[in-house]
Write a structure and sequence with these properties.
An 8-stranded parallel beta barrel has the order 1-4-5-6-7-10-11-12, surrounded by 6 helices. Helix 1 (32-41) packs parallel to helix 2 and helix 6 (159-169) packs parallel to helix 7 (190-199). It has one domain: TIM Barrel, CATH 3.20.20.70. The longest helix is centred in the middle third of the chain and has 11 residues, at 159-169. Strand 11, helix 8 and strand 12 form a beta-alpha-beta unit. The relative contact order is 0.15. The chain is α/β, with parallel strands linked by helices. It contains 10 helices and 12 strands. It is globular, with a radius of gyration of 17 Å. The chain has helices at 32-41, 63-70, 86-94, 104-108, 111-120, 159-169, 190-199, 213-220, 232-235, 245-254; strands at residues 5-13, 16-21, 24-31, 46-51, 77-80, 99-102, 125-133, 144-148, 153-158, 173-178, 204-207, 227-230.
Length: 264
């Protein structure tokens, strides 16, 4: 049986990790490189880095911070934000990333998914989706709409139809990021996570809302996800107590979730 993965998420502004709630009111946490080093030592499975203002500000990603984080970690490292072209993808990989996350630009130019998969292999291309519950309708048969630009702009795309198209174009993984649950520590949106997992044949990553071990376990079992993005539970100042990677892995294994065990 394949083990499940814990992926630490960094929402980065000016080289520092921040923590938002429903994509707003970001609180400063720590320098991205320092936090990456700490979590790597704690045996996190992967790290994903989003330059959260790059797309909205129409600028390129902060490559200096990408390099600084990559210098400290030797686990799979995904980077997203401000990636518009194949050259941008190449620069991010050259800076030390192993995977490229595309989100807003993929909606604006879906062919970038195909270009990235053909140039670097689909295992390098992660399609990240920001989804919001809007109710079932003829326009949104899944009940979820895709948003872009840090959840600021509605696209008119149905979430399930979009991820299916993304897989067809070459995305090797799909991130399902619930806008409604983001930073709330109230649990992943299992309905949309499960719906995406049932709709595609590539690994699905649950994102947005993990506040307890039970939330993570639910996302990796009932939600059908192969990996869970976590942030608040690791380092959010809004929580009374943060948990370490070892504590999380031990608790998940005790609940029967197949995890790579902590070594040491």
């Amino acid at each position: 049986m394949l083990t499940k993965r814990l992926i630490a998420c960094f929402d980065v502004v000016d080289g520092r990790v921040t923590k938002a709630q429903q994509f707003q009111d970001n609180i400063d946490v720590a320098p991205a490189a320092d936090l990456a080093a700490t979590l790597y030592d704690d045996q996190i499975d992967e790290i994903v880095f989003y330059d959260i203002k790059a797309s909205a500000e129409k600028r390129k990603i902060d490559l200096d911070t990408v390099r600084a984080v990559a210098h400290h970690v030797f686990v799979p490292f995904t980077v997203g934000g401000g990636i518009r072209t194949l050259d941008d993808m190449y620069e991010v990989l050259k800076a030390g990333a192993e995977k490229i996350s595309i989100d807003s630009m993929a909606v604006r130019d879906p062919d970038i998914i195909r270009q990235g998969a053909e140039a670097f292999g689909r295992q390098c291309v992660v399609l990240s989706t920001q989804v919001k519950h809007v109710g079932v309708s003829r326009e949104f048969p899944s009940g979820y709409e895709v948003f872009i630009d840090g959840a600021r702009l509605a696209t008119g795309l149905d979430a399930i139809e979009w991820v299916k198209r993304g897989e067809q174009l070459g995305a090797g993984e799909i991130v399902v990021n619930s806008i409604d649950r983001d930073g709330t520590a109230s649990g992943y949106d299992l309905d949309v996570t499960r719906a995406v997992a049932d709709a595609v044949n590539v690994p699905v990553i649950a994102s947005g809302g993990a506040g307890t071990v039970e939330h993570i376990a639910d996302g990796l079992t009932a939600g059908g996800a192969q990996a869970a993005i976590i942030s608040s539970i690791l380092y959010s100042p809004r929580l009374e107590r943060n948990l370490g990677v070892r504590e999380l892995k031990d608790a998940l294994i005790a609940r029967g979730v197949p995890m790579r065990p902590y070594v040491g």
